[in-house]
Amino acid sequence: MPILSSTSRLIALVAILLAGSPVVAQEVPANTTLVVGDQSELIRNLLEASGQDDSLQFDLELPNFAGGPAILEAMRAGALDIAYVGDTPPIQARASGTLLPIVATVHREISEYRLVARSGITIGTLADLKGKRVSYIEGSGRQAYLIEALNRAGLTLEDVEPVPLRIADLPDAIRTKAVDVAVLQEPHVTRLKAQVGATTVADPEERRLLPGTWYIYARPEALADPAKKAAIGAFLTATIKAGTWSNENREAWGEHYYADFQRIPDEDTAAILASQSPMEFQTSAEAIPHHQRLIDILAGAGELPETLDAKGSFTSEFDPIIEAAR
């Protein structure tokens, strides 16, 4: 029998997992630890605010990360079992040769991203982006959002002047006019309107570009561990119920997470909540079409070495748990 390399063994393992049998809720063995990559401590706060943290009868660790690239490195190092990330990181990871199967998808009907113009210029239509200095952050959800905005206007990245910046620097770039347009989220949109006269793109098409999406993806070795797989199922159930609670208790959620935890003023908290559509948890079958759309957007702009079949990014094993919990 031929000896497989470690890479070949991993590819074979992923193939088995993607074709695996559906998982049903089951008791998590004692002494099980599940390590979940968090961002902005969102998951931790969702579980705490909703009381769903009390339902988890195993050791849950929630290390916090600043963005998808750091999470990917932690995954590659075996330091995480699963993680929540934005819409683009799983595609970029797979394109680089690291397949981390998506186990669940969170969908918001309207994106939280906005195209924001600095004071002194007006972007009436998406076509007005031509020739502008525009923030362009490779590997983030902002990337796909901008590319799709250009697509709708019949433009490409070559028609704008990309300005590479860190996400944290985008508000100041608009404030100081270092860029003409940036892809931002609340509360920065409302703050910059009030502080420096920034404006959102007036084109109504901008609100219909893309929905908001983030994913929970898993390290293949964690999916192959029966104890961790049971813990993942329990974690998804608790997280989905927590998300439903936040939809039904928006003011309480806003006070807990934005006002109390992040120390965001009441008016900014209100702006954030007003920008958010409800969280909807999707099965793999429901999520695949939009994921393929994201892949096609990035591939069409030359941001991927080749196009990918979205079905290969997902495992459907946890679909029954998602359907039961939502």
Features:
single chain; 326 residues; alpha/beta; seven-stranded mixed beta sheet; three-stranded antiparallel beta sheet
Instruction: Report the strand count.
Output: 12
| Count of discrete alpha- or pi-helical segments spanning 4 or more residues | 13
Distance between the first and last residues' Cα = 46 Å
Q: Helical percent range?
A: 40-55%
Gyration radius from CA atoms, angstroms: 20 Å
Give a concise summary:
With 326 residues, the chain is α/β, with parallel strands linked by helices. The chain contains 13 helices and 12 strands.
Task: Chart the SSEs and their pairings.
Elements: H1 6-18, E1 33-39, H2 42-50, E2 59-61, E3 64-65, H3 68-76, E4 82-86, H4 89-95, E5 102-108, E6 114-117, E7 133-135, H5 141-152, E8 161-163, H6 170-175, E9 181-184, H7 188-196, E10 199-200, E11 212-218, H8 220-223, H9 226-248, H10 250-261, H11 266-275, E12 280-282, H12 284-300, H13 319-325
Parallel strand pairs: 1-2, 1-3, 1-4, 7-8
Antiparallel strand pairs: 4-11, 5-11, 5-12, 6-9, 6-10
Account of the 3D structure:
By secondary structure, the chain is of the alpha/beta class. The chain has 13 helices and 12 strands. It has helices at residues 6-18, 42-50, 68-76, 89-95, 141-152, 170-175, 188-196, 220-223, 226-248, 250-261, 266-275, 284-300, 319-325; strands spanning 33-39, 59-61, 64-65, 82-86, 102-108, 114-117, 133-135, 161-163, 181-184, 199-200, 212-218, 280-282. Strands 1, 2, 3, 4, 5, 11 and 12 form a 7-stranded mixed β-sheet that branches. β7 (133-135), α5 (141-152) and β8 (161-163) form a beta-alpha-beta unit. α10 (250-261) crosses α11 (266-275). The relative contact order is 0.19. The model is unreliable at 1-12 (pLDDT under 50).
